[in-house]
Amino acid sequence: MRSLNRLPLDDDLVDRVFTFLPTFDALQAFLLTSKSIYQVYLRYPESIVRNVAYNVAGPALPQAMQLVEYRRKLEDARNQDDETKSVDLPEESTTVKHISTDAAHQLARIAKAATGLEDIFSRMIILFSAHFGPRFAYLEDDETDSDDSTERNEDLLQQCIAFLDEMLDPELLEIRAVMLFFSELVSQIKVVGHPAGLGVASRGFALMVGPEAILESVLTRSTGPLQEAETYTPENVPATLHPGFLEDPLTTLLQKRRIPIPPSNETWRALLHEIKGENDQCERCQSVCGMALYNEHNWDLLQGIMRPHEVVGLFKGRLRLAQSAIDLVNRLNTNTTIDEIISEIFDEIKSVEDTTERTHWLCFSCVCEFVSGYLHYWLRETRRKEGKVIHEDCWYGYNCRTQVHNRAHADKLNHLCDPTRGDP
Q: Which domain of life is it from (predicted)?
């Protein structure tokens, strides 16, 4: 059907092109290309926006719009300074009729966070099963230990159980797998002065805040986005429920239905029925490690597996007991990460004889062995680049016993070197 369109295409064909736009950014860019295209949009704005929204959110669009509407109502309640007002979930619908500009922006943000987390999830999911298990534990809060708070907590717990009880058994296991992924992902967020990462309660709080803040905190390696998002959490959820925010009702319901809770190494089977590469070998020792392999594309995952004291343990000889260990821990607790160390070793320090390449997939043990061989060189060269004086080498190098108990000797000579006397 020809109308206001001056293009060599019918309006219906242009409208059809609109339905394939993957994002609202693509929609905006398409509208800016031609007045004729914009005129076609003005004829079908509702259907075009709805189709793009389906491309953004997929079949979950009705539920996504329910979330957007709930957030709007929650914000309205806060603007009215009525903290006691309860906000009910909007009625769920299988269709979406109208999407406002603000709703479209919120939908795009939610979809972006979901996509980002899916990307990370695809890289980490099996890795976590190899290194981690469930870590949530319910923490009691003495300040709210009263009959009223206990009754309130129990009421909220029952509400959560009732909400989850609408789901099928396989869906509950899928939610549990995602919950464990989120909790371990958040545990990797670096907290200055706290090398163990976020505590149990903080991880439970992060799950309550939601995926957008979690993704931003992981990408920036900072708790800032989580702290900024604190204003979006429901005021009626007491701190005693934060640690087990999702795990407590989920575990209760699984037990009620007598659904066996899978062991940590089988958790992800709830989401992945086939794991490609589960029999892949380490390119250094040839052992079968499946997905638990590392190269330059996922060294950053080591940040959540190797704590500072474990990295220090890779030092050769007695360096791990000397002042050099303190220096390395301080760096790891501030602005240095294990993936940066490995990258710099490859760039500047690795010997010509070592045939290991950045692209080689190595098991965890071989990564540790590789780093251990060069870690003392890395620290020495890092100090040199910072303008610090590198003193004459000690004859006994990293094996020197005196450096451990004699600070003057440790400061006078360089021990970040290979021994030329004594034990090799």
A: Eukaryota
Cα(117)–Cα(182) distance, integer angstroms:
9
Phi-psi domain of 390 (left: phi exceeds 0; alpha: psi -120 through 50; beta: other): beta
Q: Report which of 321, 308, 314, 310 is spatially closest to residue 410, judged by C-alpha positions.
A: 321
φ, ψ of residue 281 to 5 degrees: the values are: -105, 150
Which has the closest alpha carbon to 225: 239, 238, 210?
210
Average pLDDT of the segment spanning 285-307: 84
From the list 355, 361, 370, 358, the residue with the least C-alpha distance to 279 is 361
SS3 190: coil
Are 319 and 415 in contact by the 8 Å Cβ rule? The answer is yes
How far apart are the C-alpha atoms of 386 and 401, rounded to whole Å? 27
Nearest to 208 by CA among 186, 177, 190: 186
Please tell me the distance from the alpha carbon of residue 412 to that of residue 391, in angstroms, as a whole number: 7
How many angstroms separate the first and last alpha carbons of the chain? 85
Mean pLDDT value of segment 84-96: 64
Neighbouring residues of 181: CB distance < 8 A, sequence distance ≥ 6? 121, 124, 125, 128
3-state secondary structure 69-112: HHHHHHHHHHHCCCCCCCCCCCCCCCCCCCCCHHHHHHHHHHHH
Instruction: Locate 76 and state its tokens.
Output: 């309205």
Residue that is written with structure tokens 């003193």 in the block? 391
Asked whether the beta carbons of 331 and 190 are under 8 A apart, the reply is: no
Highest mean pLDDT among 15-24, 112-121, 197-206: 15-24
Q: 171 pLDDT exceeds 60?
A: yes
Of 243-257, 279-293, 389-403, the range with the lowest mean pLDDT is: 243-257
Longest dimension (CA), the chain: 91
User: 147 pLDDT band (50/70/90 cuts)?
Assistant: low
246 in helix, strand or coil?
coil
pLDDT of residue 367 exceeding 60, the answer is yes
Average pLDDT over residues 3-18: 73
Residue 298 near residue 332, CB atoms below 8 Å: no
